[in-house]
Amino acid sequence: MAASSSRSRQAPFLAAVVLILAALPVGWFVFLREPPAPPQPPTPMDAGTVQPVQVKRVDLELSTFEGTVEVRHGEKGEWVPAEKGMALRPTDAVRTGDGSYAVLVNGETFEVRMDAGTAVSVEELTTSLSRLLLDNGSATATVRGGKRHSFELTAKNGNAKASTSSGTFTMSNNGAGTVSVGTREGEVELRGEGKVVIVRPGQQSIVRPGQAPSEPAPVPTSILLKVNWPAEVLPQRELIVIGHTDPGNQVEVNGAMVTADETGRFERKVALAEGSNDVQVRARGVGGGVGKDQAKVTVKVPPVKPPPVKPVIEVNPKALWEKTSGGAPL
């Protein structure tokens, strides 16, 4: 009876021991085992697939152009005639001649239309930032929203920088520090001399040498253009056209680009032909407005008088001899 009672008391103990030993593997698996590393995505070779073809990305290209347009690859490269679809990278530059234009395209992110007599240099091209330098002339940038990308246009020989992530604006630069910015769509941030202004649609701001941007003002409804025309008849075959327009405007005289100074004064020598000549002057603002003036100038060059004719003195040697010697020579 005593042995039976002892075995009955040991049975629960043994059962508990068995349960503990059985639970040890489960506890180790649940609490102590390190989790397996996540599966790595298969490489093209592991997956047995063909490696994708690498497509060459063109960050900026010369999409279209007309007239005389030249491209320079690198800061020390030579200017060569442009070709449609030319790829442009940092340190490259594009310039347009009189009566010409060019359009630079960066996929669906932005495009820049260069007017006649304009030079643009590429400074930086990334997925988040594009920076171009306006050496001189006038350019219109259209930046499309919806992409995490900022576009900057800086004026050379000045301290003005315009930037936007969505919008359309025009910047002009006379190459000597006078810059004008006009916005058509979106908002443009214009910086200069530590000051920042926001140029909204229908507004423009002007930056003069060594000065901060002016407060944005509505784009003028008319373009100021005054020309000091000479007399209708000129005695020479050339004319110096002198005039005045709003600072920052682009000026053409008979199709040739003219640089206006910080006050808007411009001057251009024009070759004329004998007779009647049509001389045309055109001014264009960053807001898109255009002013025109023209005159008809007649050239009448006075006839050149021939030099006076010196009298011809004829000498008769025989008569002269007789007169001086008293007789004819033997």
What topology emerges from the helices and strands here?
Blueprint: H1 2-32, H2 44-47, E1 60-66, E2 69-72, E3 79-81, E4 87-88, E5 93-96, E6 101-106, E7 110-114, E8 119-125, E9 129-143, E10 150-155, E11 161-164, E12 167-173, E13 179-186, E14 188-192, E15 195-199, E16 203-207, E17 217-218, E18 225-227, E19 233-234, E20 238-245, E21 250-253, E22 256-258, E23 265-271, E24 275-284, E25 290-299, H3 317-325
Brief sketch in words of this structure:
This protein is mostly beta strands and 330 residues long. The protein contains 3 helices and 25 strands.
Question: If you average the pLDDT, what whole number results?
Answer: 85
**Large-scale geometry:** elongated
> Roughly how much helix do the residues carry, as a percent range?
10-25%
Q: Total number of helical segments? A: 3
Could you tell me how far the N terminus lies from the C terminus, measured between alpha carbons in angstroms? 199 Å
The helix/strand order is HHEEEEEEEEEEEEEEEEEEEEEEEEEH
Task: Provide the CATH topology of the largest domain.
Answer: Jelly Rolls
Beta-strand segment tally: 25
As a percent range, the share of strand residues is 35-45%
CATH architecture of the largest domain: Sandwich
Region (Disordered): 159-180
Domain FecR protein: 92-189
InterPro entries: FecR, Ig-like_fold
Organism: Corallococcus terminator
